[in-house]
Amino acid sequence: MADEPIDRARVLIVVPTLNEARTIEAVVTRLLEGTEALRTDLVVVDGNSVDGTRDIVRRIAETDLRVRLVANPARIQSAGINLAVSVAGSDADYLIRADAHATYPVGFCASLIEEARRTGASSVTVPMVAEAGLSNFQAGVAVAQNSVLGTGGSAHRTGGGGRFVDHGHHALFRASAFREVGGYDPEFSHNEDAELDRRLTLAGHRIWLSDRIEIVYYPRPSASALFRQYQGFGRGRARMLLKHRLVPKLRQTLPLLVPVAAVLGLAGLALAAATGNWIWLYLLAPLALWAAICMIYGVILAIRDRSFCAAWAGPAAIVMHLAWGIGFFRELTHRLEWHSPISKTPPSAS
Fold first, then answer.
1. 135 versus 69: which is more confidently predicted?
2. What's phi and psi for 131, nearest 5 deg?
3. Is residue 338 very low, low, confident or very high in pLDDT (cuts 50, 70, 90)?
4. Calpha distance 88→10 (Å, rounded)
5. Where are the domains of the chain?
6. Burial status of residue 345 (CB atoms within 10 A of its CB: 0-12, 13-18, 19 or more)
7. Where are the alpha helices (DSSP H) in 209-311?
8. Stated pTM of the model
9. Which of 47, 50, 157, 170 is most exposed, with the fewest beta carbons within 10 Å of its own?
10. What gap in Å lies between CA 348 and CA 334, rounded to an integer?
11. Residue 271: how many other CB atoms lie within 10 Å
12. Phi/psi of residue 323, nearest 5 degrees
């Protein structure tokens, strides 16, 4: 079917939020820039923020009728975006998903539509460039996430745009394709994007990774927050692979070895302490090797970038790999317990 003329295209922009008072006004303002030629609605789906986010959105909506606040009782992004589409996107031609903790280029929405029309893609994804925040650790996280060390070479993280892909950072969908496959799976709190991309490709839709548009992403500022985030990523990836009966890619398999190495290392320490035989410390070797590789890689990145802060990429990668692997095994174990004959408690969506 031919695209609507640009001045008749209906665009629904959805921004999921949870305590994003610091950034939400700037994000909404930037997303609406350059949309004058489009019929645009912007819905903020909020998971019960307590920091004033909702008040800011209500204030914006008072002066801009394109903006609307919708409560997201499920609190997770997948369910929130589905809800926004159901209440405000019944006649939308395009759905644009945006994050409240990212920075977007001027004309972002119009550029995405141009890419969709030029390529014929059902989904347009964009590269993410992590940028340092206020702390040295956050700067290291950004460097790690922009490199193979932290992402394993994921195309939308380390480059390689201008081609069709199996998965990328979600930005635009043709609303008809989104509806056709049923939207996001609301049971997924993480990796809902990869799971949806799997269903899109199975349905014959094509996903384009742009080499013309990119967004700036601000990583988690602390090791604890980063650990929680990546543990969620690991759990989401395990759930996605189990749902579609897939095997992990090589770059996803390597972090799975890290918790195994950690368990071996702890076992070695315990055996050495219990028996007085320090030969058991050889079980620490895999863990020590992995940690050394991360730290050395971080130093290499620091030298490359001529930045002392970049050396924190090594510790950041250690946190990311360990958390991802733990999350993966945690979800895998949980699912196997649920499917066992003696299990009576269904797996949670968390």
1. 69
2. -125, 145
3. low
4. 11
5. 6-221
6. exposed
7. 223-244, 250-253, 257-275, 285-305
8. 0.87
9. 50
10. 9
11. 16
12. -65, -40
Residue type (1 letter), 176: S
| Cα gap 232→239, rounded to integer Å | 11
Joined together, the tokens standing for residue 251 give 């770059």
Mutual angle of helices 313-339 and 285-305, in 10-degree steps:
140
**What residues pair up with 11 in beta bridges, in sequence order?**
40, 94
Q: Max CA-CA distance within the chain? A: 78
Cα 326 to the chain's mean position, in Å? 18
Q: For residue 322, give every residue at least 6 positions away whose Cβ sits within 8 Å of its Cβ, in sequence order, or none.
A: 227, 255, 258, 259, 262
Q: Give SS3 for 77.
A: helix
Scan for tokens 């095997």, then name that residue. Answer: 247
Query: What class, spelled out in words, does domain 6-221 have in CATH?
Result: alpha beta
- C-alpha–C-alpha distance, residues 17 and 72, integer Å: 9
Helix (H) or strand (E) run with residue 69 in it: strand 67-71
> What is the number of other CB atoms lying within 10 angstroms of the CB of residue 236?
22
User: Where is 144: in which H helix or E strand?
Assistant: helix 136-145
Tokens 């009576």, located at residue? 344
Tokens, residue 152: 């394993």
Length of the chain in residues, anyone? 350
What is the Cα–Cα distance from 215 to 171, expressed in whole angstroms?
10
CA distance 16 to 54: 12
Hey, what are 89's tokens? Answer: 């996107």
Token output for 175: 């609303």
Cβ contacts of 296 within 8 Å, gap of 6 or more: 314
pLDDT for 176-232, tens place per residue?
Answer: 999 999 999 999 999 999 999 999 999 999 999 999 999 998 888 899 999 999 999
Can you tell me the distance from the alpha carbon of 147 to that of 158, in angstroms, rounded to the nearest whole number? 6
DSSP letter, residue 67: E
Tokens 């193979």 appear where? 148
Pairing of strands 39-46, 67-71: parallel
